[in-house]
Amino acid sequence: MDQLVIHGGVPLKGEVFISGAKNAALPLLCASLLTSEVIAFTNLPDLKDVNTLIQLLMSMGVQVEHQKNSIRLSSTSDINSFASYELVKTMRASVLVLGPLLTRFGSAKVSLPGGCAIGERPVDLHIKGLQAMGAHIDIEQGYIVAHAKKLIGTRIFMDTVTVTGTENLMMAAVLAEGTTVLENAAREPEVVDLASCLIKMGAKIKGHGSDVITIEGVKNLTGTDYSIMPDRIETGTFLVAAAATGGEILLRGARARSLDAVLDKLAEANAFIEHNDESIKIRMKGTNHGVSLRTAPYPAFPTDMQAQFMAMNAVADGTTVVTETIFENRFMHVQELRRLGANIEVEGNSAIIRGVSKLDGATVMATDLRASASLVIAGLIAQGETVVDRIYHLDRGYERIEEKLSNLGANIKRQTTEVHS
Questions:
Q1: Would you say residue 421 has pLDDT above 70?
Q2: Do 394 and 373 touch, CB atoms closer than 8 A?
Q3: Are strands 248-252 and 279-284 parallel, antiparallel or unpaired?
Q4: Which of 55, 175, 306, 361 lies 20 to 30 Å from 289, alpha-carbon distance?
Q5: DSSP for 30-54?
C-alpha cells in the first residue's frame, strides 16, 4: 500500500501546472455515449477515477484510444447498457452513464454507486427525474434497471441541489422528445463545462450556470473535440498549501473565475493574489490570519475545499469556525489533524479551530479524497516527519501530487509498504 512521507516546514516556491478537472472529465466521458461519432478530449487528468470510468466504458463496448492526457471515444450501436458493480462500487460518478444510456438506447442496468464515505448522497433525484420523463425504473439486487421507449421532456424540480443529478438529467434530456426544464439546478463550473461540450455536439441548452436550465431535445448529436476545464479544487488545494507554508507560487493553466469564494477567503487570510485568464499567483503578506467559512452550493464556498482550509486554520492566529452544510460526515479528518497537534473541537456541523504555534509530524490515515489533501497540507506545515497512509483516496483526484509538490520545493516522497494480513 502506498503512503506519502513528508518532512515539513519548507515554504512552497515555484510554478505548477494545473491538470484537467476530475469532476468535469467524468461526466464528459459519459457524454460520449450520446453519439455514435468520435469524441476527442484533451487536458484529460491522469487519475484513478478517470481510468476506472474509462474501464467501465470499455466494458460496455466503447472503443477507446487513450494517451496520457488525451482520449478518443467511439460509442457505436453495439453498446452493452450494463454497468457492473465491480467497476461502479469505487466511484459514485459512474452513475452518470445512466442518463445517456437510457436516452440513446432505451434501457440501462447500472449498479448503485460507491465512492468516498462522506455522507449518504442518494441517487433518488436522478431516478425521480428520469421517471418524470417517462422511464420505468426498478431497483433489483443492487442495480438500477431502467427502460424507456422514448424519454419525454418535462419540468423537473430538484428539492436539493445535486451536481451529478443535474448532469445526468441534462444528458438524458438532450435526446428526449420536447423540452425539459431543470429547476434548482446545480450551477457549478463543471456543469457549465458539460453543457458547453454538449452544445458543441449539437445539443440545444440554455441557462447553464443558473439554477434553471432549459434543454430542447434533438434527434442526434455529433462528435466533437473538447478541452476539459482546469481543476478548480486542485487549484485551490495548491493555493492553500502555499498560503499555509508561507510560500509563493504561480499556478499555470488555472482559471480564477471558478474560484471566487476561495480566493476571497485566502485574501482574508492575508494572502496577496494576482491572476489573469491563464494563471494565478499567490504569496503571503505576513501572518496567517485564518478564516471562518461556511460551505454551500456554488457559487458559495465549496465543500471540497473545507478540509484544506481547516489544515491552514490549525496554525492561524486566533479562533476560526468551519461549518459544513453539504455532507453530514465530512469532518473525519479532524481526529487525524489532532494527531498532529491541531486544537479542533466539533459541535454538530461546525468545527472550532483554535490556532496553535506549530504542528508536529505523526502518522495519519486518509479517510476520503479531500481529507487526504488536508493531511498533506498539514504535513507540509508540521515539524518533523509526517506519514500519510491510505493515499489511494488522494490518487482518485490529484494527478502526481507528490511530484508537483516536490517541484515546488517540498520534501515529500511516495513509498510502498507491505500489507500484512
A1: no
A2: yes
A3: antiparallel
A4: 361
A5: HHGGG-SS-EEEES----HHHHHHH
